[in-house]
């Protein structure tokens, strides 16, 4: 996975030239995945456990079929509390907390 | 509960004439995604890691020479340290933002309050979750 933050802290902060740097140099190779037929509660549990806000979604034959974010959970009907709990767990990761 | 009880104090600033590379270095060393921009002790804007990526790098600019003032968001929504956290949550919802700079009565920057602070410090999952819902956009456009 590559995020705007990865580009900022792994390339821009080091004074690299973004015209030269490749995605593989800044990406996070280990991604947390879930399956498209899993319950959203389990997905929220994975976000809490691994302190991440996004999951890569795979089909059971392990093909990439989508992304799931904490935001997706929050806008789901009735998902507010679930997302709030997951947010409380992932918020310690420093992304939002100066 | 007041904002001053949940905010992160001693927020570090960056000057508007610093380069985006310097700002990125600071974000990396502080492990933060947003920096308040201060000029002459006054809040002049906010700069996020996303601003650097989408307003400089992706436009083919060189972040080693681009300045903070070129990529920052100058119109800043802020709150006061004496306000209630539900007021801060309302400001986040109305403006669809996840962080608010916190000013004291003299309009000096005294901290930052994030959606994460609301979730962790208030122990109120409903408040944090409903705020997250309001500021959220689905990751798949058009959904």
- Relative strand content of chain A: 5-15%
Total strands of chain A: 3
Rg measurement of chain A, Å: 15 Å
Q: Average pLDDT value of chain A?
A: 84
Cα distance spanning the termini of chain A: 23 Å
Strand order of the largest sheet of chain B: 1-6-5-4
| Count of helix runs of chain B | 7
Order of helices and strands of chain A: HHEHEEHH
Largest sheet of chain B: 4 strands, mixed
| Beta-strand fraction estimate of chain B | 15-25%
Count of runs of 4 or more consecutive helical residues of chain A: 5
What structural class should be given to the helix and strand makeup of chain B?
A: alpha+beta
Provide an overview of this structure.
The complex is a heterodimer of chains A (98) and B (143). Chain A has 98 residues and is an alpha+beta fold. Chain A is built from 5 helices and 3 strands. Chain A has helices at residues 4-10, 23-26, 40-50, 70-75, 80-90, and strands at residues 33-35, 54-58, 64-69. Chain A has a 3-stranded mixed β-sheet with strand order 1-2-3. Chain A is globular, with a radius of gyration of 15 Å. The model of chain A is unreliable at 92-98 (pLDDT under 50). Chain B is α+β, with helices and mostly antiparallel strands and 143 residues long. Chain B contains 7 helices and 6 strands; from the N terminus they run H-E-H-E-E-H-H-E-H-E-E-H-H. In chain B, the strands form 2 sheets. In chain B, strands 1-6-5-4 form a 4-stranded mixed β-sheet. In chain B, helix 6 (115-121) packs antiparallel against helix 7. The longest helix of chain B is centred in the N-terminal third of the chain and has 11 residues, at 20-30. Chain B is globular. The N and C termini of chain B lie far apart (36 Å). Mean pLDDT of chain B is 88; it is low at 139-143. Chain A binds chain B through residues 4-5, 7-9, 11-13, 15, 17-19, 54, 66-72, 74-75, 79-85, 87-88, 90-92, 94-98, and chain B through 8, 11-12, 20-21, 24-25, 27-28, 30-35, 49-50, 52-54, 57, 60, 62-64, 98-99, 112, 114-117, 119-120, 123-130, 132-133, 136-140, 143.
């Amino acid at each position: 996975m590559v995020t705007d933050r990865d580009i900022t802290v792994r390339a821009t902060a080091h004074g690299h030239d973004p015209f030269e740097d490749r995605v593989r140099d800044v990406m996070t190779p280990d991604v947390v995945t879930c399956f498209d037929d899993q319950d959203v509660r389990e997905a929220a549990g994975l976000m809490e456990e691994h302190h991440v806000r996004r999951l890569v979604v795979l089909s059971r034959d392990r093909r990439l079929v989508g992304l799931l974010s904490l935001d997706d959970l929050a806008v789901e009907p009735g998902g507010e509390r679930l997302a709030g709990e997951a947010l409380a767990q992932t918020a310690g990761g420093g992304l939002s907390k100066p | 509960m007041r904002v001053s009880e949940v905010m992160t104090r001693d927020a570090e600033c960056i000057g508007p004439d610093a380069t985006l590379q310097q700002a990125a270095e600071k974000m990396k060393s502080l492990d933060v995604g947003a920096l308040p921009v201060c000029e002459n002790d006054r809040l002049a804007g906010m700069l996020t890691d996303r601003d650097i990526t989408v307003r400089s790098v992706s436009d083919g600019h060189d972040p080693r020479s681009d300045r903070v003032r070129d990529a920052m968001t100058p119109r800043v929504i802020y709150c006061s340290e004496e306000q209630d956290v539900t007021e801060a949550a309302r400001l986040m919802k109305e403006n669809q933002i996840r962080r608010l700079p916190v000013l004291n009565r003299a309009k000096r920057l005294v901290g930052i309050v994030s959606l994460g602070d609301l979730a962790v410090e208030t122990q109120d999952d409903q408040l944090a979750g409903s705020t997250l819902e309001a500021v959220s956009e689905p990751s798949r456009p058009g959904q």
